[in-house]
Amino acid sequence: MNHANKLITIEDLTTELHKAFSIFNKIFFEGDLPTPAITIQTNGNKRNSMGWCSRVPTWGNKDGSLQLYELNLSAEFLDLDFYETMDTLLHEMVHLYHKVKGIKDTSRKGEYHNKIFRDKVLELGFEYADSKPHPRMGWTFARIGPALKERISKMDINQKIFSISKRGYMYFQLLADGKTPEQAAQICESSEQQPDLLKTKSKSHKWLCPNCEIRVISYKENVNIVCGDCNETLVKR
Predict the structure, then answer these.
(1) What residues form DSSP beta bridges with 106?
(2) Looking at the structure, do residues 174 and 137 belong to the same domain, yes or no?
(3) Cα–Cα nearest to 87, from 50, 139, 36
(4) Which pTM does this prediction carry?
(5) Which residue has the higher pLDDT, 4 or 225?
(6) 218 exposed, middle or buried (CB, 10 Å; 0-12, 13-18, 19+)?
């Protein structure tokens, strides 16, 4: 294991994201953005989502005197590429900018990115590979252009911090079994695309003693379990 990676913590990542946010806020948004709760969470059902920004404040204290938007970077992609991570951070900061200004930059429950979003990211130095909007996602697929990438490279942001991500237990088991990182990643991705197969493998079965009602869980579909106290065969529930 790379010794340098052992020294990097989630706190390091969060601290550096806050630092990058502060730098971007001053340079690109004139310091107008409120500091959000920057989180690192799994993307869950949003398997391809690299990040999101809440539509309204969702964090705060008990009396409501402090209210924060949530800006999340998906845990699975943090080490994909430094500029991809900065791309996602800036993308979500554009949404936050429009939210606090009361400007609508998306429609269709936040999925379709409109021309207002497009114009702002182009102003920052993003580029589009296609001159037409995606029929479902609109102008969402902007990418940091070379000039903006060069500008970010000169900012006081530690790129080496972004070298860990959430990979899952299966990935590390595959490495232990002799698979290369590329092979392990490919197998894990393939497994994620077959959720029904995974559910079948891990499906549990509940069994109940008809007398004392003690419960047992098994991962085999057919078992013969006898309650030691009642001498009764457990029945499947």
Answers:
(1) 113
(2) no
(3) 50
(4) 0.76
(5) 225
(6) middle
Name the β-bridge partners of 41.
74
pLDDT at 203: 59
Contacts of residue 184, Cβ cutoff 8 Å, sequence gap at least 6: 170, 171, 174, 175
- Same structural domain for residues 92 and 128? yes
- Residue 113's DSSP bridge partners are 106, 138
Based on the fold, state whether residues 180 and 209 are members of the same structural domain. no
User: Do 92 and 193 lie in a common domain?
Assistant: no
∠196-199-205 over CA atoms, to 5°?
A: 135
Give the CA count within 13 Å in the CB-facing half-sphere of 199: 4
Statement to judge: residues 210 and 192 lie in one domain: no
pLDDT tens profile 106-165: 999 889 999 999 999 999 999 999 999 999 999 999 999 999 999 999 999 999 999 999
d(CA 207, CA 96): 50
- Report which of residues 48 and 55 the model is more confident about: 55
State the residue range of the domain holding 192.
169-199
Number of structural domains the chain divides into: 3
Kindly report, residue by residue over 165-204, the tens digit of the pLDDT. 999 999 999 999 999 999 998 888 887 655 443 444 445 6
Residues 131 and 219 in one domain: no
